[in-house]
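Sample entry (101 residues):
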Amino acid sequence: CMLLTLVALAPPGYGRAIFFYVLYPLGYSFHDIWHPMMLILIAVLAFMLYRDRAAYWPTRAALGLVAFIYLSSFYIADAQWWSDFVVWFANSADNYVPMRR
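Predicted structure, serialized as tokens:
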């Protein structure tokens, strides 16, 4: 479980480092880091499963969840409902709900 925590927390830091030190100077966008980082994450989880002979259910669950998120991102990114949701969410005047105290 400690290794799964590292797997979940490391990619954002690595992704930003790769972007700012490698991709940004070459003129690439931050969007270009998504696929390499997800593939690295899937590879690390698959290696953990191979090493432990798939004995731990949290590793199997994490690999399934990460694979689902990665594969569904191809369909969600171009969907109109997702674009509408992102525009709605980004507009703070429309989605502001005051909290009661």
